[in-house]
Specification:
alpha/beta
């Protein structure tokens, strides 16, 4: 079921909730994360925030202070803790799935031992690269599997700029709830109620955007190249051959864009024709690339 809500406030978050936010900019993180922390405080929870760009520790603290008037007192008492990613996810300079999971569970237990009802945790994940992606998806799977038995609520913040169609599929399938801005409003989507429709539409929307970007970029590069080649041919000089070689090199890049455009169209058509997202909502592997399922046409042969 899809539930609209006010962009400045969240509905009540219950214990055992594992949610992800897909954000476009710092403003959207603040609009969700700040009321999320306030909701945790209202439920007498210990609140842990893992910060990095585009909302590093100091910026997050200032954003929280604008709504939580006694923030400094709460920080001193340990009701709220704001950590940099290097003090949580990247201790020792490297992400470890087992260490992150152990820390997350231990913090939840510690919070209850200190007299809190439980723990609200949120983390900004713009730091993720391809090198950490698979390990972090394993971590998300473990959190999703264990959180229902804990007095913990978790909100994971993913950037739409760095999440392509495959990443959207992977992240959404490992959370109970997705929060995203669509049609000029915020929506909370329960993945238990309707995961397929959200995933499929999100992927197709992103593919449509990519198709348009590929076509626009290729055309904007190709037109000035034609002018350069014409000038080199018309005004033959000692530099003409150098210009032609450089134009050929750039043309090779344009052909790669054309291939990407063709690949993306094939993926889009396959999803539309075979309803891939509905059949396999959690089967995508590999950050940044979509695998070719059986029967999938060779995109380069069709370009």
């Amino acid at each position: 079921m899809t539930e609209s809500y006010c962009p400045t406030d969240l509905p009540e978050i219950s214990w055992g909730t594992h949610a992800c936010l897909f954000y476009q900019n710092q403003h959207e993180i603040v609009k969700t994360l700040v009321p999320y922390v306030q909701s945790g405080l209202d439920q007498d929870a210990y609140c842990l925030c893992i910060a990095t760009e585009p909302l590093p520790v100091d910026s997050l603290r200032k954003a929280l202070a604008r709504r939580i008037k006694d923030l400094d007192r709460r920080l001193r008492r340990g009701e709220i803790e704001i950590l940099d990613i290097h003090d949580w996810y990247l201790r020792g300079g490297k992400f470890s799935c087992s260490t992150a999971l152990e820390n997350y569970l231990q913090k939840g237990l510690d919070a209850q031992e200190r007299g809190y009802e439980g723990m609200f945790i949120t983390g900004i994940l713009s730091w993720l690269t391809e090198a950490e992606w698979d390990a972090f998806m394993n971590y998300e799977t473990s959190v999703n599997r264990t959180i229902g038995d804990c007095r913990i609520a978790a909100l994971c913040d993913y950037s739409l700029e760095t999440c392509g169609p495959c990443e959207l599929l992977e992240v959404a399938s490992r959370h109970q709830v997705v929060i995203i801005r669509r049609d000029d409003g915020w929506q909370q989507i329960s993945m238990q109620d309707e995961p397929a429709s959200f995933i499929e539409q999100s992927v197709i929307d992103q593919l449509e955007t990519n198709i348009g970007q590929f076509a626009t970029l290729a055309d904007r590069i190709r037109h000035p190249l034609q002018m350069l080649m014409a000038i080199a041919d018309l005004h033959e000089s000692e530099h003409s051959e150098t210009i032609r070689k450089q134009v050929q090199s750039i043309n090779a890049v344009v052909r790669q864009l054309d291939a990407g455009w063709a690949d993306t169209r094939v993926v889009r058509e396959y999803l539309l024709n075979h309803d891939l997202a509905r059949s396999h909502p959690g089967s995508v592997r590999g950050a940044g690339s979509c695998l070719h399922p059986s029967g999938y046409p060779d995109s380069h042969q069709n370009s």
